[in-house]
Amino acid sequence: MPYCPPLPKVCNGRSIWPLLGTLVVGLLTPPCCLANWELLRAEGAQFQKEGRYKEALDRYEAALAEAGTGSRLPLSLTDVGVAHRLLGRYGDAQAAFARTLAVLEGDASSTGLQIATACNNLAVTEMLLGRYTKAQRLYERAFALYERAPGIVDGQIADLLNNVGSEYHRLGLYREAKGYFTLALERWPEGTLESAAVLTNYGSSALELRDTADAESALSRALLIRNGILGPDHPDMAKTLYYLAVLAHRKHDYRLARELYGRVISIEQRSEAPNADLAICWANYAMVLHELHQKREAKEAERHSQEILAATPPRNTIIDLLLLVPQEIATTESGLPNKRRLGNSHQRTPTSTGLCQWWEGMWPALRKAKSK
Fold first, then answer.
1. Domain 153-372 adopts which CATH fold?
2. DSSP state of 6
């Protein structure tokens, strides 16, 4: 059983003061401030749903200014962290999630489930920043807390399974990743955005294993769900479309690949700033145009790719990582997978064996939590 620091106790003398402070702040907060905070959060959530992440961040930051120091503070900090991550600002997201965790740890009324959620969100961001040791420790703590948490639900287990699968995918262990994605899919109802995120991840692992039929089935289902709920131009569509484009490219269906890469580029160009993922898509698009003997257009696409790569650092967006937000709404990261051409750049790290043993060791704890 991994080490887990003890949770603060309300009855140990000094730690009761944060709880009393929270109650006093809540009682003294004017109703108009609470209403404004709720309105700003609701507006931010609507913008986020529409893929308008900059507007969502503006609303969330305004709500944070109204949150005060009570129970609303960690909710607003999580909102801000989610928006930053959707915009690819992983450093800012990490700072927001780290502050969320610190606030919850300093509040005696925080539950183990809340702290586990904060640990998971921070772990996901640390992974995206390439800080895998920190992410591992946070995931370990989250699993331990979830194991002891009363009332844990299938969706929370599914999110954790998805994130474990994404770690296997990062290590290049695609067959193991598919297994975890399959377990996650068993716990999400078909037709939800969360199931679409996991289906996209499953399809990406199947694609790496050259299991064309399996990949196409999963990605087509994911696309149908996301298109029906989000619409054809939502940023979350880009990932699924990208993998379908790679699939068509590998099958030498260059006309379909050209169409799909074009759609991804169109969606990604509306993001806050060009990124290396978009540059990779432009490069793949150029390869397809060469195959179709559209030499002039191919050269133009290559130029776009080179210009973006020269001006922007790479993003470490590997796969859809589900955030466990306090409102129990899982939000997926937006953007393209940070892969080289045709998605073959994942290599095992020097620590992959140890990490895989650790993940396998955590599964019994997760299974025990599910059976409660």
1. 1.25.40
2. P
- 197 with 332: CB under 8 angstroms? yes
Structure tokens at 202: 């499953």
Predicted TM-score of the model (pTM): 0.64
| Separation between Cα atoms, residue 179 and residue 164, nearest integer Å | 10
Kindly report, residue by residue over 143-175, the tens digit of the pLDDT.
788 777 666 666 777 887 888 888 788 878 899
User: How many residues does this entry show for the chain?
Assistant: 372
332 φ, ψ to 5°? Answer: -100, 150
| Distance separating alpha carbons of residues 372 and 270, to the nearest angstrom | 45
Residue with tokens 């290559």: 302
Q: Where in the chain is the domain with CATH 1.25.40.10?
A: 1-151, 153-372
CATH 1.25.40.10 for domain 1-151? yes
Q: Tokens 């750049």 sit at which residue?
A: 345
Count CA within 13 A, CB hemisphere, residue 317. Answer: 26
Model pLDDT for residues 270-306, shown as the tens digit of each residue: 766 567 778 889 999 999 999 999 999 999 999 998 8
